[in-house]
Amino acid sequence: MTNPANLRTRTARWITLAAAGAAVASLTVGALPASAQPNPAPVAGTGTIFGHRPAVDEEALAKAMAPDGVATGTMVRISGPGVRWTKATGPLSQDPAASFRIGSMTKLFTSTVVLQLVAEGRFTLDTPVREVLPDTVPAHWKPITIGQLLSHTSGLGLPCEPLGDGLGLTPERVVRAWTSCAAAPESPVTVQQYNGANYFILGLAIEKVTGHTYADEVRRRITRPLGLRHTYLPQPGDTSVPSPSLDAPTPKEPWAWAEGGMISNAPDMERFMKALLGGRLLPPAQQRRLFVMPPLSKSAKEPYSAGGLAPYTLSDGTEVWGKTGSMAQYSGGVFGTADGRRAVTYSFLPTRTATRAEAIEHVTGIVEAAL
């Protein structure tokens, strides 16, 4: 007989898109470490370079991207003033426009739409979710606000109902698994805790106030205006990845919707991240929220901003912001400088034997060398 506690744990791993292989199950869910070792001196590389300074730290990237016991292959794309560089190692497609599942990077699209709706006056960050979705959060719970969902400070923990393998679920069913619990979340909330359920609720809030599907709102507000022709949310049951894809066909995966279900490619993710960080998608007031760190984030193992961004400080003191994500065999992320002028997108295939620490070091090496 299946142990219910184990089932809830497995379900939580799925819903937060932390499954990128048994040994690195929680790698790409959180922010990168606060510091890293200094890089070797940059050397000229073989990427496409404009300007006079070295485009990337080729030596460090070659080391980080080499297939080994941590990753069988890695794709990296870097872009900025005077820089345009793309490379893939191992069995990954060499096509720079190869598609892949972006997992929890989907949350950045969700948070962007939510902040746009705040700017339009559809709701505020302090609006209780029950005012938008009366049947979602129980009345006897202390109110959970839109802003708390965005910043992972809602207090939601593990689901109290099993979700099985995740196939055939609806957003409403997923949310009910977290909100049908007899006991209310701890109040007041004392820790920032990353939880994909927050973004399922936000997806429902988007649909409620706009009268359109989540996918339609992302398309109308983000992908179409930015010309992201390879970025979309598949329909439920659609397990295909457009060709060329970064990797060979992947096993059938649950539909993770506004929490982590989108497909994109490196050029599109780069364009989106530069637009987001560069202030082209949000008015100034909402743009500032992207970089505000909630008080509860100070003690969090994986800190996130009020807008759902993960901060990371490079070894030279440069502050960068981004998001990681996993789905199927892919583990990836997108990070950029706060002004949006330089960005890196990466995806890799972790080995089954890689430890969490080794995988984090792999990602840290890429981000340090790229930005």
TL;DR?
The protein has 371 residues and is of the alpha+beta class. It has helices spanning 4-15, 58-65, 106-119, 129-132, 146-150, 171-179, 197-210, 214-226, 257-260, 266-277, 284-289, 356-370, and strands at residues 48-49, 71-80, 83-88, 99-101, 263-265, 310-313, 319-327, 330-337, 343-350.
What is the structural class?
alpha+beta
pLDDT averaged residue by residue: 84
Please write the string of helix (H) and strand (E) elements: HEHEEEHHHHHHHEHHEEEEH
Give the count of helical stretches.
12
- The dominant shape is globular
Approximately how much beta-strand content do the residues carry?
A: 5-15%
| Cα radius of gyration in angstroms | 20 Å
Q: Class, according to the CATH hierarchy?
A: Alpha Beta
Tell me which oligomeric state these chains represent. single chain
Can you list the strand order of the major beta sheet? 1-3-2-9-8-7-6
Largest sheet: 7 strands, antiparallel
Structure notes:
The structure is a single chain. The protein is of the alpha+beta class. The chain has a single domain, classed as DD-peptidase/beta-lactamase superfamily (Beta-lactamase), CATH 3.40.710. The protein has twelve helices and nine strands. The protein has helices spanning 4-15, 58-65, 106-119, 129-132, 146-150, 171-179, 197-210, 214-226, 257-260, 266-277, 284-289, 356-370, and strands at 48-49, 71-80, 83-88, 99-101, 263-265, 310-313, 319-327, 330-337, 343-350. It has a seven-stranded antiparallel β-sheet with strand order 1-3-2-9-8-7-6, sandwiched between helices. β7 and β8 form a beta hairpin. The longest helix has 15 residues, at 356-370. The radius of gyration is 20 Å and the shape is globular.
